[in-house]
């Protein structure tokens, strides 16, 4: 679906990647891992008006055991929140049928196959690579290139120790369930499926070509993105994900980021304009909080007060504007 950096950026955009991971790697166990020396610096903002506030938290949808424990800032926001809102309602994300929905959506509605849509040279290259791993093209023939791309990404991330069940959103879903906090979603899993499936076929094919041309680059790209997220480095994360996606795949960027942010913005405003004193923690992929198209800047533009919450960050980092 996307070029290498843009494909990695999906880890910051679509909560449903966890469902893809579960569909591709059913029952994969998380590897043992020592706790990190310090918690990741949170991508956390408090947005408020005269009598209400919400917290916006940027998630990485696949993480490692050593990415825990979380920052005390996130713990405090979670404790203060009267409800926790995710991209997709937890009952849909945690439904075992969701993985099968992804597999069904990845098929061809017009009866074509992967072998038919791929150019001959790319089809032959993919077949050779699969043969080296004891697989065949026939195993992927029923799926569109976007799903093949995501499957390759999930495979690489699994080898690096990332797990869907360790993702920040899924972790907080379990925390909310244990604390009996109300939860909600900004969209449905079907909405996310439509976004994935709407990517232009030429972008899907170009993304698969780049992946297969540079397979050894993906671990480094993923590690770089994860490192920027752990450091809470907004400018670096923006350059590695949002700017790459916007510049190289503008149609996908519009579908994955801009249109969804625009659909979520009125919902966030209703939370801010609701019952005084009720605070929500809103957990979305970090991509949705970055840059001028991000929810943070969109809410700032609506006149709300915006404050970065990161006690482990240097003061300048909390005050800095997003990279343009």
UniProtKB/TrEMBL annotation:
CDD domains: Tiki. It comes from the Bacteria. Residues 1-23 form the signal peptide. Keywords: Signal. PANTHER family: CYTOPLASMIC PROTEIN (PTHR40590:SF1), CYTOPLASMIC PROTEIN-RELATED (PTHR40590). This is TraB family protein. It comes from Vulcaniibacterium tengchongense.
């Amino acid at each position: 679906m996307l070029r290498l950096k843009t494909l990695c950026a999906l880890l910051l955009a679509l909560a449903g990647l966890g469902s893809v991971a579960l569909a591709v790697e059913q029952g994969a166990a998380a590897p043992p891992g020592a706790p990190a020396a310090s918690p990741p610096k949170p991508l956390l903002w408090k947005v408020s008006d005269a009598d209400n506030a919400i917290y916006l938290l940027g998630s990485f949808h696949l993480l490692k055991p050593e990415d825990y424990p979380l920052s005390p800032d996130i713990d405090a926001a979670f404790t203060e929140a009267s409800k926790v809102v995710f991209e997709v309602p937890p009952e849909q994300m945690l439904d075992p049928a969701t993985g099968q929905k992804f597999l069904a959506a990845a098929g061809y509605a017009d009866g074509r196959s992967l072998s038919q849509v791929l150019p001959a040279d790319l089809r032959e290259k993919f077949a050779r690579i699969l043969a080296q791993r004891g697989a065949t093209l026939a195993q992927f023939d029923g799926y569109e290139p976007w799903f093949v791309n995501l499957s390759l990404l999930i495979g690489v991330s699994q080898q690096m120790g990332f797990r869907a069940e360790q993702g920040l959103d899924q972790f907080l879903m379990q925390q909310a369930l244990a604390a009996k906090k109300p939860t909600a979603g900004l969209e449905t899993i079907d909405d996310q499926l439509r976004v994935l499936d709407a990517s232009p076929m030429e972008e899907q094919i170009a993304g698969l070509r780049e992946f297969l041309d540079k397979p050894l680059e993906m671990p480094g790209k993923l590690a770089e993105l994860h490192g920027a997220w752990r450091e809470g480095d907004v400018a670096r994360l923006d350059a590695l994900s949002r700017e790459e996606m916007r510049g190289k795949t503008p149609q996908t960027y519009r579908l994955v980021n801009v249109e969804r942010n625009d659909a979520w913005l009125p919902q966030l405003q209703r939370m801010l304009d609701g019952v005084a004193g009720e605070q929500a923690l809103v957990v979305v992929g970090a991509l949705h909080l970055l840059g001028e198209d991000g929810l943070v800047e969109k809410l700032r533009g609506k006149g709300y007060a915006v404050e970065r919450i990161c006690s482990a960050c240097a003061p300048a980092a909390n005050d800095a504007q997003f990279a343009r």
